[in-house]
Design brief:
Helices cover about 15% and strands about 20% of the residues. It has about 100 residues and is of the alpha+beta class. It comes from Novosphingobium chloroacetimidivorans.
C-alpha cells in the first residue's frame, strides 16, 4: 500500500445512489463514478462535467474514495494525493445506468 495517513478512515459503506447523486438530480451525464469510503456518497469523476466526487471532498473533507463504476479496485486519498490499496471493494447496488 502506498503511504497514506488516512487509511484508518476507510469504512464499509452503502452506496447512496445507482449513479452520481447530483448528476441524477440534474439529468446530467457522467464518465465514471467515485464512492466516498467515509459516508457512501456516489459522485462523478474529474473527467465528468461537474466533478461531484471532488466537490463532495471539498465540502466534507472525507479523504478516501473508491473507483466505483466500473469497479476499478483502487482507492484515492485526496489529502495525500496517492493511490491506495483498499481492504475490500464495495458491491454495487445493481446495474448502474450508462451515460457516456
Amino acid at each position: 500500500m502506498t503511504d497514506c495517513s488516512h487509511t484508518s478512515t476507510i469504512r464499509q459503506v452503502t452506496p447512496s445512489a445507482r449513479g452520481c447523486e447530483e448528476c441524477l438530480a440534474l439529468g446530467s451525464p457522467w464518465v465514471h463514478l467515485r464512492l466516498c469510503r467515509t459516508c457512501g456518497h456516489v459522485g462523478c469523476c474529474d473527467d465528468s462535467p461537474h466533478r461531484h466526487a471532488t466537490a463532495h471532498f471539498r465540502a466534507t473533507a472525507h479523504p478516501m474514495i473508491e473507483g466505483y463504476d466500473p469497479p476499478e479496485g483502487w482507492g484515492w486519498c485526496y489529502v495525500d494525493e496517492v493511490v491506495v490499496d483498499l481492504p475490500d471493494q464495495t458491491r454495487q447496488l445493481g446495474p448502474i445506468p450508462r451515460y457516456v
